[in-house]
Each structure stands twice: as C-alpha cells, then as structure tokens.
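Researcher: We plan to redesign the surface later, but first we want a full-length starting point. Tokens attached.
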C-alpha cells in the first residue's frame, strides 16, 4: 500500500512539473495567454470547496435533459434557468439516443449535443455532464442501447468483455466530441460524471469503474474533475465510489441535511459537499397518482443545503417530455408516462411555476440574481376539436408497415432477435385446434413484454399484460388466424432488471399446448407515418371491429392571419383508451387516459404549421369513441391547459408496490 501511495505521489509531482515547464515554454513563445492560463476548475481538499480560476466557488445547478426538450426551446429553457440564479446546469448523455444502431451515430438536430453545450457557454451557464455509459434517468434501459442484448449472456455495467468492447467503441466517438468543451479548453464543462448510482447495482465491479476511469482520463485528460453519484448511505458508496473519482451523493427534501451529507464524508473526508440530485419533484408511472412535492418543502431544504456552503444540483429543474418511445420503467414492471414534468420548477412546457419563484428567492439569499425580468410562460392556444376517421387495422396494413417482410420461426422471437428495438411487433399463427368453447391462451412464464393485443380472425379477444394478466380465453375454429400485436412499453431503467427483453420472450400455450410455427413482422410505423404512406391507403368501406388496434387519420388548419400562431398546445383524447399519436410525422408519444395519471400530451409549437395542412395520425390500441363505423368521425381535442393528474379506478391498485429508491433509503 505504501509503495502504491509513493508511486502515486511521484506521478503527481512529475505531472505537475511537466505542466509547469510546458506553461513556462508556452508563455515564453506567446502561445498561452494569461486569460486562458487562469481557466482551471479544481477540488480544494484543504478548504473543502471547489476552486474556479483560483477562487473559491460553489455551484447552484439544475438538471435539464437536452434529449427531452426540443432544440427549438433549448435557449428558452436555459435562459429561464439562468434567470433563476443558477450558475450551472446538469445534463445526461443517453448513449442509445446517439448510437441508434451498432456503429450508427446521430448528433444532428435535437441530438446535437455540441450545439447544446455551445449554447450553455454563450448564456453563461457552466455544465456538469453526466456521461454514463449508464444514466438511469427514467430513460429507456437507462440510456444503454437495447442492441447490447444481442448476446443474451452479456453482463451490463460490468467488466464483461462483451459489454466493454461496445463501451470503448462508444466512448472513442463520444468523449473526443466533448473535450473541446471542457472548462480548461474555454468550454462550459466543469465536471464529468462517470457511470451513475453504481452503488445501487448488484454487480459491484471495481474493475469496471477502474476501466471507465482510465478511459475517461485517456480522452479527457487529467485536469477535468471526474465524479460519481450515489445515494446518501454508506451501503451505496461502498460499491459506487472509487479512488480517483470524487464521490457525491443524492437526496431529496425533508430530511436532515447535515446528517445526509455525513454519508458523503464516509467516502470523501475532505472536499466540497455536493448533492448531485436534490429532488424538486418525483417521477410518475402509468396507473399511479401524479407525484407532487410542495414548494415549501423544497425551498426549506434547499436553504439548509446552501447555508452549509454545499454545492447542489436540482433534479429536475426542467423535466421535459419522453417523446416517441424513450420512457423507461421500473421494477416490478411499471412504465413511466410520456410526460416527464416531474413537478419541476419549470413545467413540461418550460413555464415558471410557483416553485420556480420560491427557489429563486432562496438562491437570492446566497448570490446576486441576474438583472432583468424572468421570461414568461410560452403562450398556449386551444385549437379545439379535430375530426379523425378510421383507416384500417394494424393487421390489415401489415404489408405496408413491415418493410422487411415476414420472418418464420418455430418459436417466438424477441424484439432484439428481430433487430427491432422500439414500438410494436406483430406475431401471427393459426389455431391448431377447435376452440368453440372458451380456451385459455396463456403466457405461463409471464413472457409478454409488455402488452399484447389478441385477435382471432380479426375479432378482438383480450389483452395479455406483463405481471398483471397472463391468461385470457379465446374462441375460434382450427385454422383461424391468430394475430398478437405486442407493444414495447419501455425498458427498465434502474436496478438489476435492466436486461429487459421485449416481445414474446417465452412461449405461449393454448390449452396447455405450446404454440409453434410463428410468422413475425417487425413494424416500422414511424417511417410509414412520416413518409405519408398511410395517407395514401384507401379507407375502410365496411364496418370493422371497434376494438382492434387501428389507425385514425385527420387534418387541421391553423389560421395564418392570427398573430403569434402557432403556439404550444396540449392534445386531449376524450373517449379514447390507449395508443400512440403523431403530428406531421412527429411521434408525440403514448396516451393512456383510461389509466392515467397523464391525460393530455404536450405539443410544442415548432411541429405545427400555419403555411400547410397539419396531419394527425392516431394508433388506438383498444377502443375508439366512434366504434367500428368507418363513416363516423372520432375527435381529439387541442386544449390550452395540461392535465397530468387524472385519477382512475386503476390508480390505487398498486399503491404500495413501488417507491423508487425512496430518496435512497
């Protein structure tokens, strides 16, 4: 141990000497200005603080996820955070958002991380970057790409070579992109988090953390502050912290702040106190009540944190939206809704709330607030009822939706095996026996991940649902067509169950007999909608089943003579059950008003048009309000007020089932 410490001291001294010699040389040659030489962000262990450019520094930060806020609104949200008195923001980098397929990278548009970092710098906000590779964040599979599961035996978040080879490849692309944005390189990034809440994961693999530490140092250098985040308990810090990574903690409001910070001192006897996730709100799940934390509770605990001189990041300050299929889930399986409002100081639509002003008032006690007024809420407009008409069912449109065509298999294949990672897949079979009497179709091993809509000869039979409904009765004759549409509701993002395979992950039985001989269709619904293929399909001319998964199409025009239109709005589904919705090809996300708590979907203004007709596509999976009559029109409604707190009969079924991390108790 003494030899290791001595070697470490020698290495540090040598590094410092080299840095000093390089600095002298650079200054003598005129290559290094005094201004850039002062750009340093460091940990001062002697005085228990950070130092920025040599001066004692404390950050007051808020979380915003660029992946949950349209690029169109990045500046609006960041300016509101700046005007609240924040001097930093914190953001996650979801690996699966950028490496969508193995070796296929996307850093464009809403995924343009470099533009987001530049904007933070321009506004004057420092950045604490949570670089993963795992992020949790109520994001699908905690940000890990689902294609990692192609080898079923892979051990995620460990030193398993099958996992690390892809981590290394990703970091080889990602980390060089952020190096120019480090604080010492005149960028906004003052600290980079390595992994996330690793002490809450079963693996406890120190070799994995060491590997990441070497990787980050190789690409980012020795000057940047690298840190970890774990729950405020010694049991979390034992496996989550590592020498060379500064250990910080998470905790929410209402507790004994001084005592909670003592947990950090278990891993870091000296250095700045840091709460990397001070919870301003909490997450939601379908079928549970909307989470709310009182502004007074948040303000009181924030005041106590700042009075101690501690650094804090408020999670979330702007929650945003899980557009498309990006929501995660928790175990036992409870998926999160489309909204990630989080009861945060800035609402899902970026509007300052009463909590925002309470927090701003507290911050104003400890630092000078920026001059000028706070930006107001974005205007909202209620465009009213929009008529949509039934097109055809998913099963009837299968050849249009499945670009790759059918795949034959003796047993069901998962999403990963079909190389489809989100959305919906259709499994087709025939009944091998007469089921004139109700016959149980079952998933004995709870292998429906996550929700399956069952049809026999186009007639709806029922729904199988993960953990909740594992058997239904079906009727039909031998040879009847059995169609099963399976919905991926979002992968588990926290804990040991993140290896979350989707589809029919085990066999189904009919009257205890295993069904074999499947035809499986990957469905690329998003591309079919965005390309306008569905609008060219002939509508139904005969009555169809009212409750089989079907598409509904409509159009609407926004007046161009009214100033300031289009504006943000919210989409409501009166009489609808559950499904997915697209506007002008943009996937807004899932709706499920029959389960709640979310009733309306946030519609940002930038996806709407005043110069062209707007198209809306609804995939209703259960029951539409207009029934099966193709001549009848259903309606969705644009309103100007969100409803995230709808209560349903289902809401209290699992009232004590899950409380995620419970502030890391």
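Model: Full-length starting sequence:
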């Amino acid at each position: 141990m003494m030899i290791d410490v001595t070697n470490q001291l020698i290495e540090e001294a040598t590094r410092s000497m080299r840095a000093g010699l390089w600095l002298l040389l650079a200054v003598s040659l005129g290559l290094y200005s005094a201004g850039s030489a002062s750009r340093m962000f460091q940990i001062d262990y002697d005085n228990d603080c950070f130092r920025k450019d040599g001066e004692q520094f404390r950050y007051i930060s808020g979380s915003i996820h660029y992946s949950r806020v349209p690029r169109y609104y990045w500046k609006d949200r960041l300016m509101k955070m700046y005007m609240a008195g924040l001097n930093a923001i914190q953001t996650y980098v979801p690996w699966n958002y950028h490496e969508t397929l193995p070796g296929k990278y996307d850093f464009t548009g809403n995924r343009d991380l470099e533009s987001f970092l530049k904007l933070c710098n321009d506004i004057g906000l420092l950045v604490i970057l949570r670089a993963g590779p795992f992020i949790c964040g109520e994001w699908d599979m905690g940000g890990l790409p689902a294609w990692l599961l192609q080898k079923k035996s892979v051990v995620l978040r460990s030193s398993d070579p099958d996992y690390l080879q892809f981590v290394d490849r990703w970091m080889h692309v990602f980390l060089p992109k952020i190096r120019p944005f480090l604080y010492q390189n005149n960028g906004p990034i003052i600290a980079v988090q390595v992994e996330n809440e690793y002490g809450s994961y079963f693996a406890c693999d120190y070799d994995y953390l060491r590997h990441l530490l070497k990787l980050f140092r190789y690409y980012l250098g020795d000057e940047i502050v690298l840190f970890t985040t774990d729950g405020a308990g010694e049991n979390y810090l034992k496996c989550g912290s590592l020498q060379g990574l500064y250990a910080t903690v998470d905790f929410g409001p209402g507790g004994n702040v001084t005592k909670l910070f003592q947990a950090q001192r278990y891993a870091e006897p000296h250095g700045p106190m840091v709460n990397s996730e001070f919870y301003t709100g909490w997450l939601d799940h379908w079928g549970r009540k909307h989470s709310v934390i009182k502004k007074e509770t948040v303000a009181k605990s924030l005041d106590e944190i700042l009075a101690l001189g501690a650094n804090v990041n408020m999670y979330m300050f702007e929650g945003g939206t899980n557009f498309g299929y990006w929501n995660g889930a928790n175990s036992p399986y409870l998926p999160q809704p489309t909204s990630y409002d989080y009861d945060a100081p800035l609402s899902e639509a970026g509007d300052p709330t009463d909590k925002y002003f309470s927090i701003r008032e507290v911050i104003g006690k400890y630092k000078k607030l920026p001059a000028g007024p706070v930006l107001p809420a974005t205007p909202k407009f209620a465009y009213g009822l929009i008529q949509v008409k039934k097109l055809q069912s998913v099963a009837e449109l299968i050849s249009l939706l499945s670009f790759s065509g059918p795949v034959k298999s003796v047993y069901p294949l998962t999403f990963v095996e079909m190389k489809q990672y989100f959305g919906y897949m259709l499994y087709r079979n025939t009944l091998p026996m007469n089921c004139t009497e109700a016959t149980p179709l079952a998933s004995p091993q709870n292998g429906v991940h996550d929700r399956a809509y069952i049809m026999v000869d186009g007639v709806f039979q029922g729904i199988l649902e993960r953990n909740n409904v594992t058997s239904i009765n079906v009727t039909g004759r031998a040879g009847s067509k059995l169609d099963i549409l399976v919905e991926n509701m979002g992968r588990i993002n926290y804990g040991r169950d993140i290896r979350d395979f989707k589809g029919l992950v085990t066999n189904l039985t009919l009257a205890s007999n295993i069904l074999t001989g499947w035809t499986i269709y990957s469905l690329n619904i998003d591309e079919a909608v965005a390309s306008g293929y569905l609008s060219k399909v002939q509508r139904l001319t005969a009555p169809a089943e009212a409750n089989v998964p079907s598409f509904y199409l409509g159009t609407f025009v926004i007046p161009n003579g009214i100033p300031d239109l289009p504006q943000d709005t919210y989409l409501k589904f009166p009489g609808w059950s559950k499904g997915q919705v697209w506007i002008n090809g943009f996937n807004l996300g899932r709706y499920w008003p029959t389960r709640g708590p979310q009733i309306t979907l946030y519609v940002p203004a930038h996806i709407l048009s005043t110069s062209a007709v707007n198209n809306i596509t609804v995939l209703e999976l259960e029951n539409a309000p207009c029934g099966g009559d193709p001549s009848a029109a259903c309606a969705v409604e644009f309103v100007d007020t969100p409803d995230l707190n709808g209560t349903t009969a289902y809401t209290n079924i699992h009232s004590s089932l899950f409380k995620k991390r419970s502030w890391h108790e």
